[in-house]
Structure formats: structure tokens, C-alpha cells
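Incident log entry.

Two folding requests arrived from the same account within the same minute. Monitoring flagged them as a possible duplicate submission, but the sequences differ. Recording both here for audit purposes.

Request one:
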Amino acid sequence: MINPFLGFLDGTKVVCSDPIDIDGRMCVRVLFERWSDKRNDFDRMECLLPDGEMTGVKGFSKAEVCYHHRKMIQMQDSILEWSKEDAEERHEKDE
């Protein structure tokens, strides 16, 4: 499941996944997306927390990638916890 998370003034929307188990570690995919009139397509990139590496960068400048990367690293503990809590709440509602 993808959970809406955050919006930036430049139109970038950020969503995160439910927790994903990768080799026994809890990880969360963080997806960044914004519309580009210039390219008539979405700019996008992805970050896997807690690793923090930005991948799949399309349309964002190096400065923008650095800015968003820094924000995600600063917030990674909260993002991981919120993602886990959201998934648990949805699971409880489904029961």
C-alpha cells in the first residue's frame, strides 16, 4: 500500500510504502513525484529507507535530489515508524 505523506512548495508529492521486509530489515520505499510541463511527464525518484540512496531519478536536478535526500535522512526514523503504525492500524480495521 502507498500512503500519502508530504507535499513541497515546488509541487513535489511524497508517498511512502508500507514496511517491506528486506533480508530481515524493515524498509520503506519513499517515492517523489511532480508534474513537469516542460517535459509533459512526471519527474520522479525513489529512496529506500533506512539505506537512503536515491534511485530512478528522472527530471530532478542534482540540487533537488540532494535537498530531498537530506530531508528524508533527517526524517527517516519518523517515516519508518509512521509507515509501521499506518500498516498496523489498517490491519486492525480489516480484522
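Request two (distinct sequence, not a duplicate):
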Amino acid sequence: MIQQITEGVKISIQSHFESSFYDGKDLRFRFNYNIEIENNNPHPVKLISRKWTILDALNKIDTIKGEGVVGKQPVIRPFKSYRYNSDCALKGPMGSMKGVYKMLRLSDNQEFEVTIPNFRLCADFAQN
């Protein structure tokens, strides 16, 4: 499990290889990741947006930006957490992801960024 704390918000990530498939012309590798966002602050925070940087083993870099996560902009109460899972497909059997969540501190309406730590994506057959 990969973990990092930024401004009292702890991000924990677990990832695993799901499957390989053809998208019509290319072989793709699907990875699933589970994320827990834990608010260790005495005030609620709201997740506003996300920005992902995805590195494929073929050195292709994608940047994905969007509002919230999985269609939601959750409010995370003090000392509570929010969990979600999602997936991504890569052209190669290995890669990595990292990013940033933009959060809103509801006690003073101040925005701040929380680092999503870099984590590996690796198909089972590609591991040593």
C-alpha cells in the first residue's frame, strides 16, 4: 500500500492488474486502483477536482483532469474517510500514476492541494 499525508489529508492507494484485452486494434492492459482519502483535520473538506499524470511503459504520458472522483465531489467530515475505486488501461504491461486533488477547507473556504503519491501499475506476468 502506498500512503502520503498532505495538510492533514492521508491518501492510501492499492493497485492491481485486472486483465488484458483488445480494444479493436491494440492490446491493452487494465489496472484497478482503490483509494482511501482520510481527513485527519478538525474541519470538513470537500474534494473539488483531480489531476492525474499517467506514465505508460512505452513512455507515453497522459494528463487527465476532471471534477471530483467517479462522478462525485465528496465532503469528508473530520476524522472520517472516503473510499472509491477506478481503473485505467495502458498500452504496455507496466506504468505508474500520480496526481493532485484540489480540496476545499469548508471552515474558511480555502482551497488547497493534496498530493496523490506515485504508484506502480504492473501486470502479474511482468513482475520479477
